[in-house]
Amino acid sequence: MAIEQRLRTVFGALAFLLLAISVLQGLNRQAQLESRWWVQHTREVIAELAWLRARVIDTEAAVRGYLLSGDKEYSALREQVLSGVDRHLDMLGRLIADNPSQVRRLKRLRDSLREQRDAGQKLMQIRDGSGPAAAAEAFANSHARQGADALRALLDEMDQQEQRLLDQREQQFRGSDRMWITSVALVMVVFGLLITAYVLFRRDGSHRKALEGDLRETNEQLQDASRLKSEFLGHMSHELRTPLNAIIGYTGTLLMRLPGPLTADQEKQLKTIQNSGRHLLSLINELLDVTKIESGKTEVHLEALACRQVIEEVVSTLRPLAQAKSLELEATFPNQPVHATADRRAFNQILINLTNNAIKFTEKGSVRLELGERNGFAAVDVIDTGVGVQSEDQPKLFMAFKQLHPGTVLREGTGLGLYLSGRLAALIGGRIEFESEYGKAAASPCWLPRPDFMPILIIEDHVDNLELMSYLLRAFGYTTLAATDGITGLDMAQSENLDLILCDIQLPGIDGLEVARRLKQDARLRPIPLVAITALAMVGDRERVLAAGFDGYIPKPISPETFVSSVEAFLKPGDRRQPDQHPATMSEPEAERTAMPPTPIRGTILVVDNVPANLELAQSIFEPSGFRVMLAGNLSAAMALAKQTRPDVVLSDVNMPEGTGFELARKIKSDPQLQTVPVVLISATLPRDITAASALAAGASKFVRRPIDPGALLEEIEDCLEAVRQAPC
Questions:
Q1: What is the pTM of this model?
Q2: Which of 11, 496, 562, 618 is buried most, with the most CB atoms less than 10 Å from its CB?
Q3: Position 400 pLDDT exceeds 60
Q4: Does domain 456-575 have CATH number 3.10.20.580?
Q5: Fold of the CATH domain 3-200
Q6: Contacts made by residues 210-213, CB under 8 angstroms, sequence distance 24+
């Protein structure tokens, strides 16, 4: 950590400490004042008790003096003393109101004083009426003396209680006083440390500026180096992919026996060349992917994906690789569809890397992909019957350029597959784990977050229609709720979090129009899309429905083929589900293509590319397959040929000196004579996140990446031609 950062940390810590001590000091001061008040309060209670004890003694003395002498001064003295007792009893009651035990004693004290007052008055009356002897005899026979002793004992008991409270409160006061003094001292110490830290921080300014200058220069150098590396890799990507395209493409045409028959040795050698070219291409792609991830330029587009569909694509792609090693490659799925929030390309790449790695290190047995849901996540387990990985080597699995070789067998690869998979999983909010014991089967679970799906509410009083709509939506992975009348539907809308509401118009009780008005009056429910499902089909019905607050209108009877897609049109993109496909069996790899006999002209293809080798490769692929091929080296020549001959398909490279394939696609689609001609774009250097959707946005029909597979390219062209015969491609 830099000195400046350390000083900032120390300065901040001291400032926080000073603030905390100041708050503590304020609290201590409040406690100190409160303790002082309670000490004073207790002393006042003790003083009142002492006064009452003295007045009780004075009253007893006045009664005795009167009984002995009959002097009226003793009677007056007694009345004077008693007149002040009630006032002090009230004062004492207010002071001890917070002490229940003392309040009870005070009540007893009042009763005892009243009894003693009445007894004294009675004795004085006997003295006045019967003389001293009768008064003395009455005093001896009465309980006045015992009552006086009990009264003094009660006062002593109350005084002792207050003395104990006084001792406790004085001790608390002394403690709070010491705490106050300590907090003041701490404030002074911390304030001194703050001043010291500030001085050090200021003193370090020149050194810090020098370090900042050095760091800025180093960062600029690193940025230049990173830019140069990216430019170099981008340039090398194009330079390496272009010859690889020719190598892989021409070996593909030779293996398809388009130029002529092959001997067994020739076929074996060509397959070796083709496999080596594809391996080199995968190494280049992995290095470029690492560069993009580490530079933070990898973009992901999260969406709700049907996991089964992606897994089946991966299994279909890698099954030939597993069959070449006599391995079983299979996938198992739960009964219910499983969705994940992920980037489709990243998810596909992760599964390909994990499965390919399992196939690579499994010599016999099988590789199995298991889809399921665990702990709120979509989980895909890639399980193999290989030899496993030793525990000390497992931390190295997801490190870049690290390869683990069980035994002495050296495997091909850069050691980047699992590293890339781990980084991609993190980018899309998931993670990859590894579970293995050496000598036993290994499993690589891939965990991905599940979409936060909310249900669709269907308000429909006709049971058959309700069940049909619920069945269709659930089959495509949606959760549904049902209500058979408007009032129930409104209550459910209030209590549930919903993605969408489908509502019939003719409902019992309140109709669908009134339901719509009430829903749109609620600020919380207003954003939920509301779609009318009704058999009304008269002129003006649609306008009346929309005016009531509905966002859309789907007429009855509903079509099972289009109902779900019609509903999805009203969902936000993040809420849409991708339906799982449920084929009866896993698709088998396509049969090897054999030599194709000459065929009549099947159509005209205009090929546009500025690299002669790519033009020759396209010509060698299409002409033996029965297509007439026209070649153009730039956009202007391509447009001229297209207007003269009107080809059936245009196959264009994207990156060319005078413009891009996207520009060519736009020009063709803007020409009334050519706008129905399908355009297929092909590129080796576009980022991988350029998808078919991007090509369609530019007017193209398809997007193909180099290096091309001749058979796959022919299929793409044939698909376009077939689509043109029926509708625009």
A1: 0.40
A2: 618
A3: no
A4: no
A5: de novo design (two linked rop proteins) (1.20.1440)
A6: 211/2, 211/4
